[in-house]
Automatic annotation (TrEMBL):
Naturally occurring in which organism (per UniProt): Phreatobacter stygius
Residues in the signal sequence: 1-23
Cited InterPro entries: BUG, Bug_dom1
Gene3D superfamilies: Bordetella uptake gene, domain 1 (3.40.190.150), Periplasmic binding protein-like II (3.40.190.10)
This protein's UniProt keywords: Signal
Taxonomic superkingdom: Bacteria
Family: Belongs to the UPF0065 (bug) family.
Protein name from the UniProt record: Tripartite tricarboxylate transporter substrate binding protein
Pfam families reported in the protein's UniProt record: TctC
């Protein structure tokens, strides 16, 4: 009888566990707007929707993704910076948030003081790409050709001259020295088309922007920018391994709330998203996007923004980049 009761109790636990999860109160008693400063369909937007779907499943909380693209995400950031700190408005940012103060000197907000960090969501390396049929097999081959033929090779970056892809290219050129002409495209899509058409010799893009073309073989990755190899491209060496020890550039995504948001709410939201990032289905969806989860505490994300603001702000000012 004791064994029977234990078995029934265990089975009831399995049945009722999902119900208990759904019975948890939402994080907020009304829908939360998750503002994304980029167009629908891009990596930031898709990431936002993956997280929103998982939180609705696990907490019952409705998150409405609000796209307001333009000015490198600063339009959406300005909206959330002015919002009431009641939890109803959140902001999904990319690593471009760190360079915004130097690039846009007339911003209406401070990228740190006007926000409360919630969590670093995920990261995606910058990838040095060549055409799938290119004769360049390694990053060393490519850079040696650029040095042997000054000004003859050209490379692309997407999204203008001050995206993380462009800045990582400028940083690599500064640190290892190569003479190639940069061509700035309005986005990674046009740059990838140019690379596939042999209009340019190589390009820098986020893994999230190129993962589909890498899978198809239209493009080939020579190196990733992060300190460690990507689990999505485990056979591709890092820039640090190939040519420049210590080189480390990571594109990241995270969530911010308006400054003054209740720390208890931020803590609950952080815990819920950390749990979501560990879910196998979420991790699989992110891998398809070329994105790897990060997670961690609000304090860790705040420290990341602070250090990245110093790093990229210095390079942007050194290069004389500015958008008025």
């Amino acid at each position: 009888m004791t064994r029977f009761i234990s078995t029934v109790a265990a089975l009831l636990g399995l049945v009722l566990a999902p119900v208990a999860a759904l019975a948890q109160p939402p994080l907020l008693n009304r829908p939360i707007n998750l503002h994304v400063g980029f167009a629908a369909g891009g990596p930031a937007d898709v990431l936002a929707r993956v997280i929103a779907e998982k939180l609705r499943e696990t907490t019952g909380q409705t998150l409405v993704v609000v796209n307001r693209s333009g000015a490198g995400g600063t339009l959406a950031a300005a909206t959330v910076a002015k919002a009431q700190p009641d939890g109803a408005n959140l902001l999904l940012v990319t690593s471009g948030h760190a360079g915004a103060p130097a690039l846009y000197p007339n911003l209406s907000f401070d990228n740190q003081r006007d926000f409360a960090p919630v969590i670093a969501l995920a990261e995606s390396p910058i990838v040095v790409l060549v055409n799938g049929k290119s004769r360049y097999r390694t990053l060393q081959d490519l850079l040696e050709a650029a040095r042997a033929n000054p000004g003859k090779l050209n490379f692309g970056t997407g999204g203008g001259g001050a995206t993380l892809t462009a800045l990582s290219a400028m940083l690599l050129r500064k640190e290892v020295g190569f003479d190639a002409v940069v061509i700035n495209f309005p986005g990674s899509g046009p740059a990838n088309v140019a690379l596939m058409g042999n209009v340019i010799d190589f390009q820098f893009d986020t893994l999230s922007g190129a993962v589909g073309l890498l899978s198809s073989g239209d493009l080939r990755a020579l190196a990733v920018s992060t300190a460690r190899r990507s689990s999505i491209l485990p056979d591709v060496p890092t820039v640090a391994e190939a040519v420049r020890p210590g080189f480390d550039v990571t594109g990241w995504f995270g969530i911010l709330a308006p400054a003054g948001t209740d720390p208890a709410f931020v803590g609950r939201l952080n815990a819920a998203i950390n749990a979501a990032l560990q879910a196998p289905d979420v991790r699989q969806k992110l891998a398809v996007l070329g994105i790897e989860p990060i997670g961690g505490t609000p304090q860790q994300f705040g420290a990341l923004i602070a250090s990245e603001t110093v790093r990229w702000g210095g390079l942007i000012r050194e290069l004389g980049l500015r958008v008025d």
